[in-house]
Amino acid sequence: MSALLTLAWRSSWSRRATLSLVLLSVALSTFLLLGFEQVRTDVRENFSQSVSGTDLVVGARTGSVQLMLYAVFHVGSATNNIRMDSLAAIAQHRAVDWVVPLSLGDSHHGFAVLGTTSDYFNRFLYGDREPLVLAQGRAFTNGIDGLYGAVLGAEVAHARRYRLGDKLTLTHGSGGLPGSEHADKPFTVVGILERTGTPVDRTVHISLESLEAIHIDWVGGAPLPGVVIAPEQARKFDLAPKQVTAALVGLKGRAAVFNVQRFVSGYAGEPLMAVLPGVALDELWDVVGLGEKALLGMSAMVGVVSLAGLIAVVMAGLNERRRELAVLRAVGAGPRHVLLLLAGEGLMVTLAGALLGALATGLFIATSAPWVQAHHGVNLKLSVPSETQWMLLAAVVLAGGVASLIPAWRAYRLSLADGLSPRV
After folding, report:
1. Strand, coil or helix: 240
2. Average pLDDT over residues 147-152
3. Over the stretch 192-249, which tens digit does the pLDDT of each residue have?
4. Is the dihedral of CA 374, 376, 381, 382 positive or negative?
């Protein structure tokens, strides 16, 4: 067997120019399969940890996926708002540590506007319980002193090229309608957050009082005719919010999560619901993550094409190798040895390509992880291959071995006479 392996190696080396192209195609398919699996795993982990420091998300009674969509991803709208006195009752529960209200509905050039309190910047965690970090400036303050101060997500600041001190105006709802802009009450950029890879990056954060101030002369989604309240005059009004869209809730201990969830669901003041973020995000991924299967299928097709190329190259070279194989038969090699020789060559090329692809995957993750983290907020982790990655690598090698049997079987059937007297 060692003699056959040595012969297969020398035979492959003599045709290294041709087989190197096949090796590179196998390496590319392995790189795509393993790389996509690693990126898919890390992206899913980042997705499922879009909010990791929150025990419950509370909102009006609706579906858990819909609640997460508008409360965390700022997509869609709530079926109903929740009253602040309801949140006060939840905050007084003995197991509740903190409550951060969220108010949504306005936008800025397609980016969501989130009204909240300054506690949001301390309580909101993402990823592996990572806190929000201000790259520049500071967080706004609650109350009248914090009016018209905005903290921008990294993507908002980058897309609109905002800097500290710049002015911006918000739009009522999603915009698009004449007169929907709150142009009379501009905001000042007081802080810019570092990139997180979460919806925070695409959000303009303002205080709840600021959100009330820009709507103080609006009723029913439209400005009051003939009524204009200047920005400074708005400070004289009661700007305490009466309703919000949702709330993030933190508990003193995880053991009480179901107890508090039942308390919220059974709250008599209004119909509410509380969902566990991790469970709801997994459900949401099952809905929005269907594209990953299509991409994995495309990577698998690249692998099939690479193995088809391996078969084509070896089959095409059989005519040129008829005399070589005939000489091997003449010196005592049996049909079984010829079959093993050709299968061994194909398996060696596949194995080398798979190992090269695995090495390229590791190098890609190691070198690109800082850039991906800085620009997209996704934390790519260089780690020991997972069970799925080992299975994909084994599948590539196994498929290469099986594919090599096709030309090997063809060589097996070549007769000694056909090799000594090839057709012209």
Report:
1. coil
2. 93
3. 999 888 889 999 999 999 999 898 887 766 777 777 788 888 888 888 899 999 999 9
4. negative
Q: How far apart are CA 390 and CA 382, in angstroms?
A: 15
- Please identify which residue in the block is written with the tokens 């005399």: 323
CA distance 55 to 280: 12
* Model pLDDT, residue 156: 94
Half-sphere exposure of 222 (CA within 13 A, CB side): 6
Alpha-helical runs (H) found in 100-250:
120-123, 154-160, 208-214, 231-234
* 237: nearest Cα among 212, 211, 207: 212
Q: Which two tokens stand for residue 405?
A: 């049997």
Angle at 204 between CA 227 and CA 286, to 5 degrees: 125
Burial of 411 (0-12, 13-18, 19+ CB in 10 A): buried
Question: Is 269 buried (19+), middle (13-18) or exposed (0-12) by CB count in 10 A?
Answer: exposed
- Average pLDDT of span 333-338: 62
What phi, psi does 307 have (nearest 5°)?
Answer: -70, -35
**69: closest CA among 280, 216, 366, 220?**
280
364: left (phi over 0), alpha (psi -120 to 50) or beta: alpha
Q: Rounded to two decimals, what is the model's pTM? A: 0.71
**Which string of DSSP letters, residue by residue, matches 102-131?**
EB---EETTEEEEEE-TTHHHH-EETTTEE
β-strand partners of 251: 96
Q: Is 6 helix (H, G, I), strand (E, B) or coil?
A: helix
Residue 309 has pLDDT above 80, yes or no: no
Q: Between β-strands 246-251 and 111-116, what pairing exists: parallel, antiparallel or unpaired?
A: unpaired
Exposed, middle or buried: residue 223 (CB in 10 Å: 0-12, 13-18, 19+)?
A: middle
